[in-house]
Design goal:
208 residues, 14% strand, 3-stranded antiparallel β-sheet, Nucleotide Exchange Factor Grpe, Chain A, domain 2, 3 helices, 3 domains, 68% helix, elongated, alpha+beta, 3-stranded mixed β-sheet
Length: 208
């Protein structure tokens, strides 16, 4: 074979090889372009699915919060209604207590009034003064016992040192002895305490 033919054959082989390489390169580029096209689509699909999941989670959270808010509102309204009923009931009970608070005390005094009425009736019929006096003393004893049982105590006065916390001086008088100076010589009106609270001061005469 001549050198010219060999050269022509080599040139054709090179052209064929170049054609094959060009075809393979084109295919590779096409494959790469296809991959690049598919990859963003996959990313978009994945992003879309993630967003939907997040939206669903947020919606569920919103629904839960709305339900909780509704529950709290209902509880608040119920408590307000209960408090309003309690306030009205308390006001009524307080009014009833003020109006009828002394009912029990009055009931216990009624027997004393009955005794006084019987004593007055006996005064008109009996000439026995000693018996009438004894009856009145019994009524007085019964009444003072009633007061004592209900926390009412008499304030000691005569012979005690004058105390502005429990005594009210209506006048002064020269003390018969030095020891009686500043002390209560006489009591014009007895004073009383109710459970250690002064409800009436003793009106007294004080030695000076």
């Amino acid at each position: 074979m001549s050198t010219k033919k060999q050269n022509e054959q080599s040139a054709e082989e090179i052209k064929d090889e170049q054609a094959i390489n060009a075809e393979e390169t084109a295919k590779a580029e096409e494959t790469a372009q296809t991959a690049e096209t598919i990859e963003p689509e996959l990313e978009i699909a994945e992003t879309s699915e993630s967003e939907e999941t997040e939206i669903e989670a947020l919606q569920k959270k919103y629904d839960d919060l709305e339900k909780r808010c509704q529950t709290l509102q209902n509880d608040y309204l119920r408590l307000m209604a209960e408090f309003d009923n309690y306030r009205k009931r308390t006001i009524k009970e307080k009014a009833d207590l003020i109006k009828n608070g002394g009912e029990d005390a009055i009931k216990k005094l009624l027997p004393v009034i009955d005794d006084f009425e019987r004593a007055l009736a006996a005064l008109e019929k009996s000439d026995d003064i000693a018996a009438v006096k004894e009856g009145i003393e019994l009524i007085y004893s019964k009444f003072t016992s009633y007061l004592d049982n209900n926390g009412v105590k008499e304030i000691p006065s005569v012979g005690e040192s004058f105390d502005t916390e429990v005594h009210e001086a209506i006048t002064t008088f020269p003390a018969p002895t030095p020891e009686q100076k500043g002390k209560v010589i006489d009591c014009m009106t007895k004073g009383y305490k109710l459970n250690d609270k002064v409800i009436r001061f003793s009106k007294v005469v004080v030695g000076e």
